[in-house]
Design a protein that fits this description.
The protein is an alpha+beta fold. It contains eight helices and eight strands, in the order E-H-E-E-H-H-E-H-H-H-E-E-H-E-H-E. It folds into three domains: 97 residues, no CATH class; 102 residues, no CATH class; 73 residues, no CATH class.
């Protein structure tokens, strides 16, 4: 069983439509009365003859679910039933679309299949990056300010313990030098956080997405909020461990992509942006492989 965290139904429908020469669609008609609300869902297919068994089963399943849903909604104003039915239909459609594609399954650090247009199925531990969440960490009186104060306190306490055995005259002579070194140590500690804040601003200025996933071997997966099956704000906190990402390679950002054309200012600027991404994002790979996600899920 799969637990979907992310599902792009636009691409899934496109795959089915191209393969089956048509698309499974869903229509809804509603009518309001003074004391009762009724809703009737009708599902039809615009496909031509010759549907595969998988799509035929999906249509039959949708019809059965619609009949049950119609009876329920005639006696209740709840919309939860419709949401459940929609998600179940989407899950079934993914399995059908997935059966038409034979993706590569590269092992960790294997980039031999990283060609634009290839479908990949990655089973990895991904780092989930939420830029809006990170921005909140660096706000005034946020967690980063608290961390700076905590580190500075630890440095001062360690320094006091180191000077406990010194006499008054020794402390007086070393006081100016000691305070300067203490200030420098605290400043170096704070600089690490300041550099991280600068890098975050730089990334946000060049990336058109608010959220993404990143693997240690260089797979960059941009995420569109429209396709989340969960609350995206909670993904980084609630979910971790190895996860499956199924998608298509759409771009390679590498050291060997220099346009070598000084007259093409746009290509040169894009290369410089790509170099910034390669240097800032924490991966062990020389190249970044952009994977457009179709589905992200736990399970088989």
């Amino acid at each position: 069983m799969k637990q979907f965290l992310y599902l792009d139904m636009e691409i899934i429908n496109s795959i089915i439509a191209q393969t089956e020469q048509g698309l499974v669609t869903q229509k809804s008609a509603e009518s309001d009365q003074s004391t009762q609300k009724s809703e009737e869902d009708k599902t039809h297919s615009e496909v031509q003859l010759g549907l595969s068994a998988g799509v035929s089963k999906l249509l039959k399943f949708v019809g059965n679910m619609n009949h049950s849903q119609e009876e329920l909604l005639r006696t209740s104003d709840s919309s939860s039933s419709k949401d459940v039915v929609t998600k179940v239909i989407h899950d079934a459609a993914f399995d059908i679309a997935r059966s038409y594609i034979n993706p590569y399954n590269p092992e960790l650090n294997d980039q031999s299949y990283d060609d634009v247009g290839n479908y990949l199925q990655l089973y990895r531990v991904f780092e989930f990056i939420d830029f809006e969440y990170l921005d909140k960490l660096f706000c005034d009186n946020g967690i980063i300010d608290l961390a700076k104060k905590s580190v500075a306190k630890q440095i001062h306490e360690s320094a006091e313990k180191a000077t406990e055995g010194l006499g008054r005259e020794q402390l007086r002579k070393a006081n100016a030098k000691f305070n300067a070194e203490l200030k420098r140590t605290v400043s170096l500690s704070n600089q690490q956080y300041d550099d991280a804040a600068t890098a975050l601003k730089a990334l946000r200025s060049v990336l058109p997405y608010r959220r993404m996933m990143l693997s240690s071997d260089g797979y960059l997966i941009p995420l569109d909020d429209r396709h989340f099956r969960i609350a995206p704000d909670s993904m980084g906190f609630r979910y971790g461990g190895e996860i499956t990402c199924f998608g298509m390679v759409t771009n390679i950002i590498g050291a060997d992509t220099d346009p070598c054309d000084n007259k093409n200012i746009f290509a040169t600027l894009q290369f410089q942006v790509n170099e910034l991404l390669r240097n800032l994002l924490p991966t062990q790979s020389e190249n970044l492989c952009v994977l457009h996600p179709i589905a992200i899920y736990y399970g088989n």
